[in-house]
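hey team, just a heads up i'm posting the complex here instead of the shared drive bc the drive is being weird again. everything in one block, sequence lines first with there labels, then the predicted structure for the whole assembly after. its two chains so it's a bit long, scroll down
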Amino acid sequence: MNRPSGIDWRAVGVLYARETRLALRDRTIVVNSILIPVVLYPFLLWVTFTGITFVRGQTSDLTARVAAFGLEGGLEGRPALRKELETDPHVSFVTASSPTAGAVDVRSGSLDAVLEVLPSGRAEAALQVRLTWARSKERSTAARERLTTFLDRVRERALKREGASRGMDGPAWTLFTLEVRNVATGREMGRFVLGLLLPLLFVVMVSMGCFYTAIDATAGERERSTWETLMTVAAPRSSIVVAKYLYVLSFGFLAGVLNLAAMALTMKSVTAPLLARFGAGLDFTVPTAGVLVLLAGALVLAAFLAAAMMLFAVFAKTFKEGQAMLTPFYMLATLPVGFLAVPGIELTTPLALVPVVNVSLVVREAIMGVFRWPQIAIAAVSSALVIAGSLRLVVRVLSAEEVVTGAFAGGLVAFLRKLLRGRSRPVSGKRAS
Amino acid sequence: MTAVTASPVAVRGLRKSFLDENRGEVRAVDGIDFDCAAGEIFGLLGANGAGKTTTLRILATVLRPDGGSASVMGHDVTREPDQVRRSLGFYSASTALYPRLTARETLEFFARIGGLSRERVRGRVNELIARFGISAYADTRVEALSQGMKQKVSIARTVVHDSPVLIFDEPTVGLDVLNALDMRKLIAELRSEGKCIVFSTHVMSEAEKLCDRIAIVHRGRIHATGTLGALREATGLHYLEDIFVRYVETAGG
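-- predicted structure starts here --
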């Protein structure tokens, strides 16, 4: 294959328009790069609230099967305790031969909890109540919560009564009251929540936008046998590479921006009012500078991922092979971002040098209204260098005739190894006649 | 611009080798020379693996030669690949169309990328749609077309930018008798328009009917070149098949 020549921007425009038109007619690309980013958040929100409502409904209707010991007769209001428990429609008493047998039943799941009032030995000592439950059983957990709440309520009432009988007014019978104050505003809380959620989903979405288009632009051409057709059109090879790169980049960027827009809309118009009903007034407004940084972040991320993914996918001969070649890189690019949700991780200078991680940290901090401009500049410059290097390598790979003709057996690593060894002859995997 | 020769297509001492994991270095093209003039169909006749496709791929700038030279309309394939591609249309059984474009969109794309102005594209595409009998399915996606229909669209896209040189690499492979006949008719028409056509085939009857001059290619070399009449005279044999076998056997093959 011949050396790359200058870029013909007119040809780039024609090729780009064709790539885009073809992509918009491909169901896989439309679903993964456009539909999923748009519907993901409303869908997740629906699933979450439906799930919460369902679980709450199930829990509130659950009847706790309880075996009680030591509530019969004697002093300290034990019969009253039992009587009060019996009036609770969500508690049913079950017979067990002993507390030990009851614990075995709890473990097996035929019983939810065992409530024992232990003998105190002294009349003036407080009652000792033991609650046996199994953390591994959801029913048992629900029974524990129900019984604990019930016992707290009974104790509070008794203390109040006792205080009143001793002439203590109001809450004086309590040693102290605790008031917890959250000084974070609704806006700050909203940004904090967004900052935790958004970077990972943002990186995943931009990656998804690049993933299928990168394969479509390279392995897809081979699978459809249109690669050679393209190699013989009257356009410089560099223009073909640039058009394909811009196509992959723009779909990655589009996926990222649509994702951000969908998230903003969902959070502001659906999540915030819902949370307000539960008493949590969160405001998901992102600062204007943050929006600009987000857009720039989407562009930089898409620019890097497009180049990197094309670099891997260009060696694949079929769409399936392309997916297999790209998946490890996809995982490598997206998984570390999940760890960034850990509190305390900030955009430091070393992290500003790591591709993908740097952009997701810039994005997270921008949402929270934090802008470390020196580190942002380092992230921008290092990203630009990595993108330029990757693109150069893409052009180099697509200048190798064994790659163009599909004769090269192996992936990027094999190609780089060969490049370093200086072998320039094509390997005849698919030799022409 | 490098003027190698006055012929639209000129090939001199062309060489190309591949590394085969089992056989080591294989000389696919081993010093091929030929010219093709305007209004001529030059046929490369050879068995599978003779070096025809490699030669044509070098002319189309898909492959880079190891040695020798090749030029299209005076442009060297190695030094001026962009100009070479602008000067030719390349058709092969392995060059497919984009399934999600309609026939019209396909032609428009190749016309635009071939350098035609936006204004000229519509007229040229309509002209080819009428000429190749594509009208009935011009706005149907390629993926829904039959093999014969696709073939017509493929030829139309090869000639849409009106290049002076056309390369056809085994164009009738996989076609039924009637479609192959149509294809040969279209290629003959293009010759009458003054196009310089380089054509490869392993079908003797096709070469006999279509080619003005025939080169017998075997193991990367041309063993004889000439009109059918000249080849008959040189060998004393009438049928091209016999002539071909004679040269191949003489070459030790």
